[in-house]
């Protein structure tokens, strides 16, 4: 029998996941698509609206926002449905992470999203000394309304002749404050390592970049690992890599029992 899923969030990732899952109807049935209008627009109270939205779902596929994970994640897990999270930045909050990852009865799965190599980082977590992440993106993919004015005008005015500009060097917490929508990869690394404090983040705005590149270096007491992941942006949202939706579909199919399984 196909696994019943609900899509929470129907933007760039949600639409791409929906399109791909249509090719796997024998394994996965999309029961409902839930966006803001469904959860916030009705006359019902929030808990009833969420209960109706996820009724019968074995898995809720979150591709909405960190705020949606905060608002609905605990209720989804508490209802016994499983949750696959794209907006990993939400789990930088240790209380929310504790609730989602440990409370149950539903299970919380974390999407590998825009990168790979998290299995290796998880496996070596006890020996990790430091992880560095350098993300290089087109300036427009970094712009958002909450940026301080000086950074907003710097990003909006960057032209190819100006060359790349470092716009952040710091901790995951520093990155969340300035670039909350670009923190998923840093959060994924911290969650895999079991300690956000091990991750140092650098963000470079590169006006010549056509791809988003994540250069990841992992220093452990037993080895050194480097990954470079260079993704084309999703045409529907330049801040999101096209790989993210594919990673989510791959994860959903794996949860539906489709192999091969690398563990
Ligand atoms: N894990 C990763 O590597 C990775 C990579 C890229 C994006 N993401 C995250 O995935 C999420 C979705 O990305 P996207 O590019 O599809 O974004 P998007 O802006 O294109 O779409 C988001 C959709 O979710 C809906 N939404 C937002 N908040 C909601 C809420 N509280 N309740 C209900 N619906 C809500 C919006 O209305 C919109 O339709 C973002 O949080 C993004 O940061 C994760």
TrEMBL record:
It is an enzyme of class 1 (oxidoreductase). Residues 9-100 form the Aspartate/homoserine dehydrogenase NAD-binding domain. The active site is at 214. The keyword DNA damage does not apply. It catalyses: L-aspartate + NAD(+) + H2O = oxaloacetate + NH4(+) + NADH + H(+); L-aspartate + NADP(+) + H2O = oxaloacetate + NH4(+) + NADPH + H(+). NAD(+) binds at residues 114, 184. Residues 163-249 form the Aspartate dehydrogenase domain. Keywords: NAD, NADP, Oxidoreductase, Pyridine nucleotide biosynthesis. Pathway: Cofactor biosynthesis; NAD(+) biosynthesis; iminoaspartate from L-aspartate (dehydrogenase route): step 1/1. Its EC number is 1.4.1.21. It holds the Pfam family NAD_binding_3. Specifically catalyzes the NAD or NADP-dependent dehydrogenation of L-aspartate to iminoaspartate. Belongs to the L-aspartate dehydrogenase family. The iminoaspartate product is unstable in aqueous solution and can decompose to oxaloacetate and ammonia. This is L-aspartate dehydrogenase. It comes from Paeniglutamicibacter terrestris.
């Amino acid at each position: 029998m196909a696994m019943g899923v609900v899509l929470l969030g129907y933007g760039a990732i949600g639409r791409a996941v929906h399109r791909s899952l249509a090719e796997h109807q024998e394994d996965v049935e999309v029961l409902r698509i839930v966006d803001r209008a469904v959860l916030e627009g009705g006359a019902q109270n929030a808990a009833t609206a969420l209960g109706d939205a996820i009724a019968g779902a074995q898995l809720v596929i979150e591709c909405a926002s960190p705020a949606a994970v905060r608002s609905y994640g605990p209720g989804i897990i508490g209802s016994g449905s499983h949750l696959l999270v794209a907006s990993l930045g939400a789990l930088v909050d240790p209380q929310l992470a504790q609730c989602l990852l440990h409370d149950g009865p539903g299970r919380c799965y974390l999407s590998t999203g825009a990168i790979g190599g998290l299995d290796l980082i998880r496996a070596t977590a006890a020996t990790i000394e430091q992880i560095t992440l350098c993300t290089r993106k087109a300036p427009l993919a970094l712009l958002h309304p909450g940026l301080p004015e000086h950074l907003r005008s710097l990003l909006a005015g960057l032209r190819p002749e100006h060359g790349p500009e470092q716009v952040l060097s710091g901790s995951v917490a520093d990155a969340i404050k300035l670039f909350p929508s670009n923190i998923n990869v840093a959060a994924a690394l911290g969650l895999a390592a079991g300690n956000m404090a091990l991750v140092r983040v650098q963000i470079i705005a590169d006006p010549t970049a056509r791809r988003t590149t994540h250069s990841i270096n992992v220093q452990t007491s037993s080895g050194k690992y480097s990954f470079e992941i260079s993704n084309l942006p999703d045409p529907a949202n330049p801040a999101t890599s096209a790989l993210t939706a594919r990673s989510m579909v791959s994860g959903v199919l794996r949860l539906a029992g489709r192999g091969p399984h690398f563990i």
